[in-house]
Design brief:
Radius of gyration: 25 Å
Order of helices and strands: EEHHEHEHEHEHEHEEEHHHHEHHHHHHHH
Largest sheet: 8 strands, mixed, barrel
Mean pLDDT: 76
Strand order of the largest sheet: 1-2-3-4-5-6-7-8
CATH architecture of the largest domain: Alpha-Beta Barrel
CATH superfamily of the largest domain: EAL domain
Number of strands: 11
CATH topology of the largest domain: TIM Barrel
CATH class of the largest domain: Alpha Beta
Helix content: 40-55%
Number of domains: 2
Strand content: 5-15%
Number of helices: 19
Low-confidence stretches: 1-21, 47-56, 297-302, 419-424
Structural class: alpha/beta
Amino acid sequence: MRFRPSTKETRDDESSHVSASEAIVARQPIFDREKQLYAYELLYRSPGHDTACVSDGEQATAAVLISSFLDIGLDRVVGHSSAFVNATHEFLVSRAAFALPPKQVVLEILEDVIVDDALLEAVEEYVQAGYRIALDDFVFDDALRSLLELVHFVKLDVMALDMCSIREHVELLSGYDVALLAEKVETALQYEALLELGFDYFQGYFFAKPSVLSAARPPTNEQAGLRLLARLTDPDAEIQEIAELVARDPALSYRLMRFVNSAFLSLSQPLSTIQKAVIHLGMTAVRRWVTMMVLAGVGGTPTELIRTVLVRARMAELLCNVIPRAASDIGFTVGLFSALDAFTGRPLEEILSELPLSGAIVAALIDGEGPEGEVLACVLAYEAGDWDRALGHGSGVGLDQLADWYLEAVAWSDETMAVTAAFT
């Protein structure tokens, strides 16, 4: 199956040049009968291109979701509006869409999706769970009657149909409980005629062209993602092991923390560590998100920067075990996130503002406060070879012990990277 970029995605006058290191997603607004914003359709954009340039539908779907939900943030992409997301057959029947918030996402079934028993069963489950379903570029066919009994929106491409065909479709669809959405509306005359025919929602160049949003994307250890994905398929995998595997990749950890603390999960209290985030999400949700991360191709090869923060995180974890009032899981998270500014090219304060971390973690990272802040300062000083400053941070630990822990952290980092590299 392929992800077919429609003409709304391939106009030459959509211009926004972005680099491959950026997370990219385009959005086009959808309006109601009063010309009030109702939702946005999220569209794939290839890095460095103004158009979709898609060869793999699953990768395109995953890339849109990763960019929208994790790299840029759904609040920035659609605010409080709904998001129409293109969905392929494989994406739907795999149940991967259950990782998305049902109150804000509309699953848009592409017109070339094969309607079979597996798809109908999956769509029924999504509807029962509260998801809204749309049919894209609809052309009436008896094979689609079963789907029409389930879906909430039907989108008609008014550029591909003449007015007589549009009227026939409106009449045929009047027997179903669906809202009609006209896409590719390009003139005021079209809009007025479609309004009179009873269409509920409208999308097209008459209202607005797609706009491109982007954000810096931290480099991901693709091997770590694959390693994690492999373990997630093992029914004997323990939640603690999964948390440790997630923690081996700073970018995966960053995205997971953004997702689990995002507004649409509505947590009463923010989750401040990788372990708590993984436990809260559970194996099924973690499996879905990691699958999309790997499919999206957001990874890169392991770098020295990844190695450095792994060493910091492990050494901080070891040091916290002997420091009064210090928590080893917080120490590990502080070490892991200590170079997020280098990963993203953005100020650390700005990045941390997007992660509702505990006060202890933020204070440690920004101001070096608290026991974990002292631990991080000690680790950074030792890393820089400033022995006096490393010993002066109140840990009470001798230089020999720091050296042992540093070497243990280096060995752990090397082993971690070797294992993930060997996996592929």
